[in-house]
Amino acid sequence: MSTDKIQQLKNTRKKQTKPKKNQVYYALVVLAIAIYIYATFLKNNAYYSRFWIIGLLIGFTLQRSRFCFSASFRDPVLVGSTSILKAIIIAFIISTIGFSVIQKQYVMNDINNIPGQIYPVGIHTFIGALLFGIGMVIAGGCASGILMRIGEGFMLQIFVLVGFIIGAMTAVVNFEFWDKTIISKSPQIYIPKYLGFPNASILQIIVLIILYIAISLYHNKNNIMKM
After folding, report:
1. pLDDT at 207
2. Considering the entire predicted model, what is its pTM?
3. 8 A C-beta contact, residue 85 and residue 68
4. 171 vs 110, higher pLDDT
5. Where, by residue number, does the polypeptide cross the bilayer (predicted)?
6. What span, in angstroms and rounded, lies between the C-alpha atoms of 120 and 188?
7. Most buried residue among 92, 152, 174, 196 by CB atoms closer than 10 A?
8. Mean pLDDT across the chain
9. What pLDDT does 211 receive?
10. How large is the C-alpha radius of gyration of the chain?
């Protein structure tokens, strides 16, 4: 796509953009509801009130940063931008360091004493990832992106949320069958068990850094949004 064509599309989009409505009143109503829910949690169970605040902060961060797994894989293909994908890789690097420190403390004396869940990896992982990826692109967002867009007022994502609920309920009903047939028979792979914690963590961070550099070069070469 030529630079002139891109600029023409941008100008057309600007002309089609409608003036934004004042949404301060809506914000005040939502804020009042959020405070009321927090006060209710605080009165009945202070433990849940913490999760409410954390959820609000995460939602605000996602909305302002436009953080979305779907966009992170879609944008490099459509417009050559890897900004969101780079943010996700940075998040992976930070979480790798954090989880390594936490898990190291638990498994210091017993490698089998692993906090959390180590799920089997097999053909079901590949099929599930493929189906989720296809659905994610068709729906226009991942789980967090869908919830974020519903909050922004996008009506289409409400139908996607209904699909999420139906899919989740179907999975729960049929999980026992798939678990006995495939999942439970697949191996559990825990890399630190084979390489040790320092080596596994360093290796993962190095791989993520290499990916970050590679997609940065791709971004500089193919990003049409900067033209």
Report:
1. 94
2. 0.70
3. no
4. 171
5. 24-41, 47-65, 77-102, 122-147, 154-175, 195-218
6. 4
7. 92
8. 81
9. 93
10. 22
188 backbone dihedrals φ, ψ, rounded to 5°: -95, 120
Place of tokens 């009143």: 25
Tell me, letter by letter, the H, E, C secondary structure of the chain.
Answer: CCHHHHHHHHHHHHHHCCCCCCCHHHHHHHHHHHHHHHHHHHHHCHHHHHHHHHHHHHHHHHHHHCCCHHHHHHHHHHCCCCHHHHHHHHHHHHHHHHHHHHHHHHCCCCCCCCCCCCCECCHHHHHHHHHHHHHHHHHCCCHHHHHHHHHHCCCHHHHHHHHHHHHHHHHHHHHHHHHHHCHHHCCECCHHHHHCHHHHHHHHHHHHHHHHHHHHHHHHHHCHHHC
Quote the CA–CA distance of 205 and 166 in Å, as a whole number: 37
What does the alpha-carbon distance between residue 71 and residue 74 come to, in Å, rounded to a whole number? Answer: 5
For residue 155, count CB atoms less than 10 angstroms from its CB and return exposed for 0-12, middle for 13-18, buried for 19 or more.
exposed
- Those residues whose C-beta lies under 8 Å from the C-beta of residue 16, and which sit 6 or more positions away, are none
pLDDT (average), residues 44-48: 82
Give percent of the chain above pLDDT 90. 8
